[in-house]
């Protein structure tokens, strides 16, 4: 049994039906067990979960890529430039305090 | 057709006069002494400056040499892929390289700018003050290909608190616009145009609200375009801008947000679009007269990436 999904063009793999004719008792019992409804349902749920997880991972990956490159283009130069501007103003402040304090420091010595 | 009027909020400072009677009283608006408004075509000037930086792809090198206080020559080299409009959704880029030579003459009353490129295109602009209030502006673009050249001339008259403009263009294009200051902060204007070539005519209205801290503008045109913009000056160095464009004919809606940081050593402009476009332009001053430019544009929807760098030498 295969179920066709509409979106994304991805479809679950086709499950071939195994034949019950022929083979010994053990093989017939094993095939009957593997074709029981519980196991069948379990397999289907597991593959659906894997499908959904794969899709989620892909879309999260795409979103992370878009967010990452946008951050790189918009925010990183801004941070770098603001940091440089802050360094420059700190340097200027240092210079201003140095120049401002030196005449008063050399004053009382004379 | 709706006349768009931006909300005329009470702009003159309303101080709480009940608490401190010595505080400056509400200034009486002198309606006969309103300031001269911005020209109608520059009504969105702040928003366009912040949100539409000149993003480019490839290498750009500009050298401007001043021979005189009034006269300057400029050499410019551009190398990079240029897009050609194609019918398929894929963008086709062709690498091109050209050199552009230009000359500028600047006078308080007369300004002449000319540029010529190696592929045979000539750009010329003239701005002449015919009298104190009348300005003549003309621009021409001549190319090798037939039927691709055009000339445009406009006469601007600046009144006490209004401006009017009359425009003539090649291909039988006539246009007129008028803008008037209504209060010290609000100005309203309108324009009409008529093209002979396509037999189209249109009318549009615009409004602008100006404050020390923000500028809000709106424009409606009969071509089905609605443009709203808002620029807020957050501090001396930072301003944020946003713009909303709606085209009724093609049902196109675009919203853009951007920032503009003017720091001492650099100018950084970034914008993000609702079409999935992200762009940034960084102009950094390395030395006196030496500017370094970096440009980046990422289009997530079309997966089109454009990066460029350049240098500008000269004042």
From TrEMBL, chain A:
Q: Does the keyword tRNA-binding apply?
A: no
Tell me the InterPro entries matching this sequence: Tom22_pln
User: From what superkingdom does this record's organism come?
Assistant: Eukaryota
Q: Which residue windows are transmembrane per the record?
A: 63-80
Ranges for the region named Disordered are 1-26
What are the UniProt keywords, alphabetically? Membrane, Receptor, Transmembrane, Transmembrane helix
Please report the name of this protein according to its UniProt entry.
Mitochondrial import receptor subunit TOM9-2
Native species of this protein? Coffea arabica (Arabian coffee)
What gene name is listed for this protein? LOC113714555
TrEMBL record, chain B:
Q: What is stated as this protein's family in its record?
A: Belongs to the Tom40 family.
Keyword terms, alphabetized? Membrane, Mitochondrion, Mitochondrion outer membrane, Protein transport, Transmembrane, Transmembrane beta strand, Transport
Q: Where is it localised?
A: Mitochondrion outer membrane
Q: Does the keyword Transmembrane apply?
A: yes
Q: Which residues form a coiled coil?
A: none
Pfam families, per the entry: Porin_3 (PF01459)
Signal sequence span is none
Q: Which GO terms describe its biological process?
A: monoatomic ion transport; protein import into mitochondrial matrix
Main location per the UniProt record? mitochondrion
Record's protein name: Mitochondrial import receptor subunit TOM40-1-like
Q: Which GO terms describe its molecular function?
A: porin activity; protein transmembrane transporter activity
Give the InterPro entries listed for this entry: Porin_dom_sf (IPR023614), Porin_Euk/Tom40 (IPR027246), Tom40 (IPR037930)
Cellular component, GO annotation? mitochondrial outer membrane; pore complex
Q: How does it sit in the membrane?
A: Multi-pass membrane protein
């Amino acid at each position: 049994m295969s179920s066709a999904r509409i979106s994304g063009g991805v479809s679950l793999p086709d499950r071939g039906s195994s034949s019950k004719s022929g083979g010994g008792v053990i093989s017939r019992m094993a095939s009957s067990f593997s074709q029981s409804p519980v196991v069948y349902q379990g397999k289907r749920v597991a593959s659906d979960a894997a499908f959904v997880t794969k899709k989620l991972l892909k879309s999260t990956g795409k979103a992370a890529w878009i967010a990452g490159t946008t951050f790189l283009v918009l925010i990183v130069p801004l941070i770098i430039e603001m940091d440089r501007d802050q360094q420059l103003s700190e340097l200027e402040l240092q210079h201003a305090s140095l120049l401002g304090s030196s005449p008063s420091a050399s004053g009382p010595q004379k | 057709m709706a006349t768009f009027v931006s909300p005329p909020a009470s702009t003159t400072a309303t101080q709480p006069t009940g608490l401190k009677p010595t505080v400056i009283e509400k200034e009486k608006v002198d309606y006969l002494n309103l300031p001269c408004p911005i020209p109608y075509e520059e009504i969105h000037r702040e928003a366009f400056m912040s949100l539409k930086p000149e993003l480019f792809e490839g290498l750009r090198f500009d050298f401007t040499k001043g021979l005189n206080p009034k006269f300057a020559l400029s050499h410019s080299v551009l190398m990079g892929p240029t897009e050609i409009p194609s019918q398929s959704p894929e963008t086709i880029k062709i690498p091109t390289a050209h050199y552009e030579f230009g000359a500028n003459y600047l006078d308080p009353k007369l300004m002449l700018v000319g540029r010529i490129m190696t592929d045979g295109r000539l750009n010329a602009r003239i701005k002449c003050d015919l009298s104190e209030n009348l300005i003549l502006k003309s621009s021409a673009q001549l190319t090798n290909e037939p039927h691709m050249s055009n000339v445009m001339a406009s006469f601007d008259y600046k009144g006490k608190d209004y401006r009017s403009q009359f425009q003539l263009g090649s291909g039988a294009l006539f246009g007129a616009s008028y803008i008037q200051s209504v209060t010290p902060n609000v100005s309203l204007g309108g324009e009409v145009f008529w093209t002979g070539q396509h037999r189209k005519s249109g009318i549009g209205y615009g409004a602008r609200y100006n404050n020390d801290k923000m500028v809000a503008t709106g424009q409606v045109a009969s071509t089905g375009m609605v443009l709203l913009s808002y620029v807020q000056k957050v501090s001396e160095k930072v301003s944020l801008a946003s713009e909303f464009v709606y085209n009724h004919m093609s049902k196109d809606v675009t919203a853009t947000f951007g920032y503009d940081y003017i720091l001492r050593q650099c100018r950084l402009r970034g914008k993000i679009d609702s079409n999935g476009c992200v762009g940034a332009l960084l102009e950094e001053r390395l030395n006196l007269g030496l500017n370094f430019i970096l440009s980046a544009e990422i289009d997530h929807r079309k997966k089109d990436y454009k990066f460029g760098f350049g240098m500008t030498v000269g004042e």
